[in-house]
Amino acid sequence: MSTAVLKDLPASRTEPDGSAVVRLLSYNIRSMRDDVGALARVIRACAPDVVCVQEAPRFFRWRKKAARLARASELVHVTGGATTSGPMILASLRAHVERADDVLLPRTPGLHQRGLATAVLRFGRARLGVVSCHLSIDADERFAQGRLLLAKLASLEAAHTVVAGDLNDRPDGRTFGLLAGTLQDAWATAPWGREHTTRLGDPEQRIDAVFANQGVEVLGCGVPMGLAGVREADLRAATDHLPVLAALRVPAP
């Protein structure tokens, strides 16, 4: 495990041609059952414009907990949480929310309810459709959810789109392959930082990922181990997954 200082990804900015560099973070936060202060410090250090959350609080006072995380992370709640059975989207004030939609996916009896948090965000003239997901542990249900996810992404009617989340699948899996066959796997396109997203000390796997459609330029993507301000102690204390940070250049119309 490397502890070398990691060069930062490009900063958020609007280019002279109207395109926008957007920093997007995907993070499974285990219902905020761990150290929320550490979680917020990790998020702030990554300086995201958008956070695709998985396992957001879903039960008692879930809205209050989501607001607490947004406030501590210097972000605002866009959509999702209990209404999507876990996926949620947070954003900085840089993002203008054009629309947001919560989706519950068909559920297999005996398995957890799953859903999608979706939004269309604008950064100046650049528009980005965003989907946060947490797919099933069951292979067949997960594959069906992957197909529904791609259909929902197309229905956003945004020229530039991104999917981020906990896939419960590895790069050699059928559902991961379905998404990677249609979208860019951001880590494979522009690897940066650490690859594996499972908790430090657990078997190394990449089950959390960011995908972007072909119109989006991936400038870098990976786990921000060693990034200035991201402490290993906070990563261990915050939750049982590691975050995935991506920098994306989104063209203007």
Automatic annotation (TrEMBL):
Residues 25-241 form the Endonuclease/exonuclease/phosphatase domain. It holds the Pfam family Exo_endo_phos. GO terms for biological process: DNA repair. Its cofactor is Mg(2+); Mn(2+). Keywords: DNA damage, DNA repair, Endonuclease, Hydrolase, Magnesium, Metal-binding, Nuclease. GO terms for molecular function: endonuclease activity; hydrolase activity; metal ion binding. It comes from the Bacteria. This is Endonuclease.
